[in-house]
Amino acid sequence: MTAQNHVPSKLSRTGAVSALTVAALAGTLLAPGAAPEAQAQTAGPSYATKALNVAASKKGSPYKYGAAGPTRFDCSGLTLYAYKKAGKNLPRTAQQQYNKTRHISASSLRKGDLVFFHSGGRVYHVGIYAGSNRIWHSPKAGSVVKLERLWTSKVLFGRVR
Predict the structure, then answer these.
(1) N or C: which end of the chain has fewer CB atoms below 10 A?
(2) Is 118 a catalytic residue?
């Protein structure tokens, strides 16, 4: 044990507080269950957060069928554009994007994951999960990129690898 990490077993209240303060300031104290800083930084993929932020920055951009940015989008064009800006490549259509992602359960869903809408075994729409049961998406002709609550339970979830 080094002198830096050694704390005497009997400390006065003032000494204990001082030792805890020094340990906390030095970055050597962890709360029970806390992850070390390096582990915490890699716990969630930062590209998912970046993609979510890119999608949110496109709020109000008009829908255009077949468009993938930078000023107009269809649903899969928005997800493709957002993830490309975050350093990840996705295929063009919602179905192709679903096929490429790692399929996850609703209980595993995190911000930045993709939410796929399906009917009869076919994926027809995609958005980026924003938390609190909401997605960023480009819904349809005449609409714009917006944050909206999920409106159906006929959804599947995917995480970009």
Answers:
(1) N
(2) no
Q: Provide the whole-model pTM.
A: 0.73
Count of helix runs (H) and strand runs (E) in the chain: 5, 6
The side-by-side arrangement of strands in the sheet containing 114-119 is 102-104, 155-159, 114-119, 122-131, 134-137, 146-149
Determine which one of 6, 103, 118, 125 is catalytic.
125
Contacts 24+ apart (CB under 8 A), 86-89: 86/47, 86/48, 86/50, 86/51, 86/54, 87/47, 87/50, 88/47, 88/51, 88/160, 88/161
What distance in Å separates the CA atoms of residue 135 and residue 17, rounded to the nearest whole number? 45
DSSP annotation of 63 reads B
46-57 and 75-85 helices cross at what angle (nearest 10)?
Answer: 130
Query: Sign of dihedral through CA atoms 44, 83, 149, 99?
Result: negative
List the chain pLDDT tens, one digit each, 161 residues: 444 444 344 444 444 444 433 333 344 334 444 434 333 334 455 999 999 999 999 999 999 999 999 999 999 999 999 999 999 999 999 999 999 999 999 999 999 999 999 999 899 999 999 999 999 999 999 999 999 999 999 999 999 99
